[in-house]
Design brief:
This protein is of the alpha/beta class. It has one domain: Flavodoxin domain (Rossmann fold), CATH 3.40.50.360. It has seven helices and eight strands. Strands 1, 2, 3, 4, 5 and 6 form a six-stranded mixed sheet that branches. Strands 7-8 form a two-stranded antiparallel ribbon. The mean pLDDT is about 95. The chain binds flavin mononucleotide. Flavin mononucleotide binds next to helix 1, strand 3, strand 5, strand 7 and helix 5.
Length: about 180
């Protein structure tokens, strides 16, 4: 594959795990968005951003937004990591929610991450508990897949990270 860079933004480690698996498969460079500047990605033909999903927002996109006009000639892909099971419609909603203006049209891939309320910050844990409380009042028959995933995770410690989630992205990167 051509020269590339993987940037990741990960609060609890799953996106970091996927970024390193991707690095092993591609030989691309890999660094945190917090440590990266556009100069680090300037020599690359390909750029992949791996970011966790928090309340429907994809972490790390601000790097792409900030530098979008400087990155126009690059092949860019986003791999987001959430706790919900893979769902085509939910991915489309994430795209609509996160890819506005300059990011419109970017390919988005998905990997399932992890869930452990025990390691969350107090703020994150409180937010998740509030969401679960609100969902508990709804009729489970009307749940979207991510809502089912959210409710099934209450009090659980789960790690769904699996390198096979990277296959569609690797195929995309290998296409000319
Ligand atoms: C505050 C908070 C909000 C979250 N919101 C979502 C969400 O909207 N959709 C989802 O699928 N997962 C959601 N999650 C689960 C995370 O995406 C999941 O734990 C993922 O593995 C996080 O990536 P990271 O380990 O790289 O930080 C949320 C987690 C937290 C702590």
């Amino acid at each position: 594959m051509e020269q590339g860079m993987i940037l990741y933004q990960s609060k609890y480690g799953s996106s970091k795990k996927y970024a390193h698996w991707l690095q092993e498969s591609t030989g691309f460079g890999c660094m945190r968005t917090a440590d990266a500047s556009y100069k680090d990605v300037l020599p690359c033909t390909t750029l992949v951003l791996c970011g966790g999903v928090y309340a429907s927002g994809i972490a790390g996109l601000s790097f792409l937004r900030k530098n979008s006009h400087k990155l126009k000639d690059k092949k860019i892909a986003v791999f987001c990591v959430g706790a919900s099971p893979y769902d085509e419609r939910a991915l489309l909603q994430l795209k609509e929610h996160n890819f506005r203006q300059d990011l419109n049209g970017l390919p988005l891939f998905y990997g399932r991450g992890a869930w452990n309320e025990g390691v969350m910050t107090w703020k994150d844990r409180t937010l998740c508990k509030m969401l679960q409380k609100a969902l508990a009042k709804k009729d489970p028959a009307t749940y979207e897949p991510w809502m089912e995933g959210c409710m099934a995770s209450v009090g659980q410690v789960r790690d769904w990270c699996d390198p096979s989630y990277l296959t569609p992205l690797l195929t995309y990167l290998q296409e000319g």
